[in-house]
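Entry:
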Amino acid sequence: MDLRQLIQQSPDIAAYLAADEAIDHEHPRVREVAVDLAHGTDDAYTYARSAFTYVGDTVPHSADSGDPRVTWRASDVLATRNGICYAKSI
């Protein structure tokens, strides 16, 4: 494993927050969940832990659930409550 992949390459956090086809954080469903998760958090680390826990607790991996759908867009993952590893990470 190339450990450089695990090191922040840019000091600008905005570089890691850009929306794209998979990370559709402007979608109303994604924004609603993000606002709910941010409520009561004090900093970005607490928010990140809250988001990680939320996904782990509410979105099973499609292989574990037996669901044949392969969701990969953030809004689809939230709509179906199902996703592959990559989809769950966004």
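Residues 47 and 68 are 31 Å apart (CA to CA).
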